[in-house]
Amino acid sequence: MNFLYNKVFRVLRQRTKPTLTAKVDPLPGKSVCWSLTNGESVNFPAYRSLAIDEINNVIEFLEKLENEEIGGIDFLELRACDESCAGGILCPGNRFLTADKLRKRESHLVISCIDAKRRNEEYDAEGQFLLNNMVTKTIPPRSSLQLDNVVSAAMIKMKRIYELTRLLPQVDCGICGSPSCKSLAEDIVQRESTIRQCIFIQKVMEQNDTLDQQEAVQIMRGIWGDNKLDKNILKGEINE
Questions:
Q1: What's the pLDDT score for residue 60?
Q2: Among 14-28, 37-51, 181-195, where is mean pLDDT lowest?
Q3: Domain spans of the chain?
Q4: Cα 43 from chain centroid?
Q5: 42-79: per-residue pLDDT in tens?
Q6: Is the C or the N end of the chain the one with fewer CB within 10 Å?
Q7: CA geometry: angle at 63 spanning 148 and 152, to 5°?
Q8: If 0-12 CB within 10 Å is exposed, 13-18 middle and 19+ buried, where does residue 86 land?
Q9: pTM
Q10: Considering only 5-9, 118-122, 132-136, which range has the smallest mean pLDDT?
C-alpha cells in the first residue's frame, strides 16, 4: 500500500489542473471521524454505549458478555483494528498520526447554517427509513462442539482428537478443506473427513506405497472440485 500510495500521490502532485470540477459538499465533523474509535458510539449520548478496538480486546469483551459478567449495555462499537480503520492493514500512514489528523480536521471543519439545516433534513429522512427497515430476527448463539451425547463416548473422542492433532503437521495450511489441523482432527473423529485428506499424510503414504498419485488426486477433487485441478485451466492461469 505504501508503494501504491506514493505512486498515486506523485501523479496527483504533478497535476496543474484539478481533476474534479464539481463542487463536493464538505462532510460534517462527526462523519470525518466515523471510522475512528468512538466514531459510532458518540452518536448515542442517551444510551450506555461502549467503543472497543483491537481484535484481542474485542474477543475478551465478547467472552465476558457471553458469560454474563457484563450487562446493561445498549450499543457496542467493535473494531478489529487498533485505532479502528486508521490502524487497518491497508492504511499507508502511522495509525496514531492518521487518527490525530482526522480529529484536527473535524475540529476545524465548519459548515454554514444553511448547509447544516439542509443536511439535518436529509439525515432525518434517511434515518426514518433506516428505523422502519432495519429489523433483524433474533440471533441465537452458536452451539459449542458436541462430540457425543454420552459423556464417556465424548471423552474417548476428545482423547482421539488430541492424538490425531499431535500426529498432524500443525501448519494449518487449509489444503485438506478444514481451517486448521485441530479442525481436521475433529472432523475425522466425527467421521466427516479422513486422515488421507491431509496433503502431508498423503505424501508419506505415497512414499510408503500405500497411496498412489491418482488416488491422491481424487481425494483433492473431492475437497476442491474438478475445476481447481483441471490441467487446462491451470495452464491458462499460468500463461496469463
A1: 92
A2: 14-28
A3: 2-133, 151-239
A4: 24
A5: 888 888 999 999 999 999 999 998 888 988 888 999 99
A6: C
A7: 15
A8: buried
A9: 0.46
A10: 118-122
What does the pLDDT average to over 81-92? 87
Grid cell locating 160: 482421539
Are the beta carbons of 106 and 29 closer than 8 angstroms?
yes
- Quick: pLDDT tens for 187-234: 899 888 888 888 888 888 888 888 877 888 888 888 777 776 565 544
- Three-state SS for the chain is CHHHHHHHHHHHHHCCCCCCCCCCCCCCHHHHCCCCCCCCHHHCCCCCEEEEECHHHHHHHHHHHHCCCCCCCCEEEEECCCCHHHHCCCCCCCHHHHHHHHHHHHHHCCCCHHHHHHHHHHHHHHHHHHHHHCCCCCCCCCCCCCCCCCHHHHHHHHHHHHHHHHHCCCCCCCCCCCCCHHHHHHHHHCCCCCHHHCHHHHHHHHHCCCCCHHHHHHHHHHHHCCHHHCHHHHHHHHHC
Q: Cα separation of 111 and 197, whole Å?
A: 61
Least confident of 14-28, 160-174, 221-235: 14-28
CB contact at 8 A, 147 and 157: yes
